[in-house]
Design goal:
- GO terms for molecular function: siderophore uptake transmembrane transporter activity.
- Keywords: Cell outer membrane, Membrane, Receptor, Signal, Transmembrane, Transmembrane beta strand, Transport.
- It is a multi-pass membrane protein.
- Its main location: membrane.
- Belongs to the TonB-dependent receptor family.
- The protein is mostly beta strands.
- Among the domains are: 474-550 and 734-742; 620-724, TonB-dependent receptor, plug domain (Ferric Hydroxamate Uptake Protein, Chain A, domain 1, Beta Complex), CATH 2.170.130.
- Helices cover 8% and strands 37% of the residues.
- It contains seven helices and 47 strands.
- The strands form 13 sheets. It has a five-stranded mixed sheet, with no helix packed on it.
Amino acid sequence: MNRLSTSFGRVIVGLAIPLALAFGFTEPDFPARLVERLRTFSVTYPREKVYIHTDRPFYTAGETIWLKGYLFDGPEHLADSVSKVLYVDLVQIESRKVVVHRILRVANGHAVGDIALGDSLADGAYMLRAYTGWMRNFSEDYYFTKPLTLLRADTEPVQATGSQRLAPQPDVQFFPEGGQLVNGLEGRVAFKVVSPAGKGLDAKGFVMSSTGDTVTGFSAKHLGMGYFAFQPEGGRSYTAFVQLADGTTHKYPLPAARSEAYMLLVDNITNRDNVRVYIKNTKPAGVQGRFTVIVQSRGRDIQVVQGEVSKKAIVMQIPRQVLPAGISQITLFDETNQPVCERIIFVEKNDRLTVQLKPSRPTFNPREKIQVTISVADATGKPVRANLSLAATDAGQVLEKEPYATDLVSYLLLNSDLKGTIEQPGYYFDASNRERATDLDVLMMTQGWRRFTWKEVLQDVYPAPKYPIEEGLSVTGQVLRPNKKAPGVVNLTFFVAQPDSTRDVFMGESDESGRFSAHGLQFVDSTKVMIQGVIGKNNRNLEIKLDDWFSPTLQLTQIPYNSIVFQRDELADYLKRTKEYLEIERQIRKNREILLKEVTVRKKREAPADSRKIYGQASNTLKVDQTMIAGGMNVLDLLRGRIAGVSVSGSAMNPTVQIRGSANFSGVVEPLFTLDGTPVSKESIVSIPIFDVDYVDVLKGANAAIFGSRASGGVIAIYTKRGSPNYDFSKDQSPGTLVVTMPGFRAVREFYAPRYDENKPENVRPDYRPTLHWEPMIQTGEDGKAQVSFFASDARSSVRIVAEGVTADGQPGVGRVVFDVK
């Protein structure tokens, strides 16, 4: 057997010459083009990964899901990314509807939030889904998903699988290693046997040829997966007979074999230093040329080699030291530069964090203060700085129904790079499982990897992404004339009224077609936004329409794995305690609604303070109403004859204003004009629509002294309705104006837990909380340590603590501890 060890390291900078791959022409420098296109593709479409840590896997209607999002860049797993907006959906599996949608602000790769579960939500199977706006450009298969179960305290536990409509026959699939079987060559066929709910089933069977011969037998090794060696022969077909544990047998055809083709086999188990790749082919002797093999991980090229088609069996070696931790992809291109075989492998580096959780005592009393020291170190034992989230739950109520469930480590290194849901992913990272490396290799043969296709990568021009990278919230739309024609460039003013009464105002303009967009906005949920458009000086005869605000869609092709099934008595204590707690909460809210006796309070009415003013009392104030508007061309017209000592003369468009005969040797000294507290020119005042004016203050003499020498002629202060901090934009019906209430970032809520070291009235009530503590933002110091404290409940049970976190350079870690409260 010939050994191939040539590695390729040369990179072409710039665009390669276009190639007619569809016609099978051989490209002389195809490896260079392959590397250049892969790198360009990765830069054009950078990938992101999202992980969500929640306090527990199931909840009751009326409770709260506490969560923290971790955002990573795809290739390097750095604990940050360019996106600053994270979307989180709660999806009901049976109806396949998004029942809750949250928008979370991302800072330094972390996002903190919660989902309050309404009392009206139905029980059953749900899914938590998280993604960024940029991730919407790619397949939803790589959104973060996590199964959750919702129960109701007023009903008995149910089977929450959402699988009632699925057929009872198991799903059995066969996967030839590398992607294809070749007549006359011995290869391996992996298989996977799963139930309708997606759980692996124990099975065994045999393969029979079309001539009636039994070729080989097989049996599932782990969670319904296994493999067998097999050499097909030309002119024959093959059928697999699969027997389940219940004795039933089902038959399935094996994939058809090819006669003139390549085979790719990988040995990722037996050699400690290298991964061996075996390449075989049955091409006719007349076929000449070179095949190409590329090894890449998360869009980064690692090794590219070429070999002669005339060599029918070749081995290449990939040093493990050049492979990153996690999944790598090996692709074989034939002599016409078409991808024909592919295999993914997992490389274990053992470079994860060690997260230790040490309670101050081995056991605690009910309601006693619990202190936990967190210590984080890297693979060498060196203390490191890390950001973590921690959940402490009552283990007697919050059952661990799913062994080896997804955590930050397994998701980042495994789940996030595979399509579909993986059953018990934590199994492959538990060093106590001696067969985990072999089982993981079989998983690589069955699960597949498809973040992109090579056809997408090798095209010369990449289409522009539909969705931008979001550094904040966006408002986009279009301005049209009433006849629906493009208005040309429109001047736009945006007023953002936050729920906390703060106001933001910014200006912009549309393009020639009336399209506009504002990006990078920062506002919280249910914020009123007013957009005002003007053409020219004062033409507001316009219609403003916003693009549909992002409405999450759902493409759920199969019921997720890991749906939880509860027995009748398993959650009896949890449901009883939850029902009692929710009833107490309802009673407390009811008791707060106290009816007061009728009281008459007499006090002189004070004018409400206007934050736009820097002065105290005005000399005169003119409140503008509808009866005045009909007779005036502009706001200064309204002052004629209405305020003593104020003279307005001249035309409506060029008036002269004088307060109490203010003049000097040069003539009339006009007053200082202000608009909503800001000094402006008289021309700006004249252009203000009268219907926008709320009131006018006139300051004379000493009252105007606060403005200094520029107010020697007094002050005319104009205040508009829209400028008022108390103005309700929703009542504005002016032409060229749009007022909408928009969803913004979810405000961060603090997890509440009682403090039993303080004497508070609420401490007398029973305490059987399922989640004792949730702390989403824990930062260890240079010594790798941090401390967390909370109080035990009344339950004499076990407390389970799980902490997950990551360093800035993307090293993940998970720590667990269980102790008793007696």
